[in-house]
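Dear colleagues,

As part of the handover before I leave the project, I'm documenting each prediction I ran so the next person doesn't have to rerun anything. This entry is a single chain, and its sequence is reproduced below.
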Amino acid sequence: MPRRIRLQPYLTDHELHERYRQAHNPVERSRWRFLWLLARGLTATAIARVTGYSAYWIGQIASRYNAGGPEVLPDGRRRLRGQRSPLTDEHQAALRTALAEAHPAGDQWCGRTVATWMSTHLGRHVSRQAGWRVLRQLGARFLKPRPRHVQADPVAQALFKARLRPLLREVATAFPHASVELWAVDEHRIGLKPILHNVWSVDGQRPLAPVQHRYEWRYVVGFVHPATGRALFHVATSVNIALFEAELAAFARQAGVGTEKQIVLALDRAGWHSTQRLRVPDHVHLLFLPPLYSPELQPAEHLWPLTNTVLVNRHFTSIEELEDAQAAGCAALQARRDFVRSTTLFPWWPQRLRKRQGAKASLA
């Protein structure tokens, strides 16, 4: 027969119940529940069946409570930010400098490598947990690196950002009675080669997705106005000058381009974009990104994770079926302007263009 655990009389049964009810931290709430049920006479085995925790862990919580009283129940992890760093200000500055660079031994910065760095500079052993705490105290976060092509030109990219608003003002000055909007356009290839993404699954169940690798392609052409989240999409069979001319003409009609609305369209320097043979609709002004690998300056690039949502982990019997699914997904996405805006509006991207000489301000 399981032995009942006796608790020290620090708190009454009623007081334990009140602590359990008033606890907001889920860890602390579980611990107070253990103690309240133990005080009511339940065994650790019976509580384990009710709560899903192990009887051993419930016994450990009871032992801590008996040894240290109610003060040992709070979740210790909550106190990490308040702990004093073992590093001096000079050491912290040196560690910040080291973290900004690649690890000298080709390793990755983490709790283990920071603990090794601290051990070297402090002259004593430092645990991995202490290294992780210092990382958190320095405000470090575990982030995936943003890709940048080795041939990208940071100077050209910075100059593009700096010149963007003056260029818009030049268009506004040339057309004083028209509003000016800044759009972006890009192409994205989709096809019958499956797109697989992670999905949530419960323990013991491995998610499966039907696949059949085939190599038929279509192209989604996306126009986006980041300042408002408005987006327009076309699905094409290929990319070439003639198709892009047709897409530009359709975009001009859909966006309402005319003497009262001028559109500046940011795009990359693909051959079918930058050729002199391309016929651009009136009142549409092309603004090319820097010539060397600058996709991070293109808001339309951020449309593709959104449009891919209806394609991931799915099998399509034909390219026409995929086209229909993509068209329906794009139509639904067009109605979610706030969502599109939150994804495509960069902090440096102009939102409002203020015209000079007292002209009415308009979004750009």
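Residues 357-364 have pLDDT under 50 and may be disordered. The chain has three domains: 13-79, 89-137, 154-199+206-363.

All the best with the project,
I.
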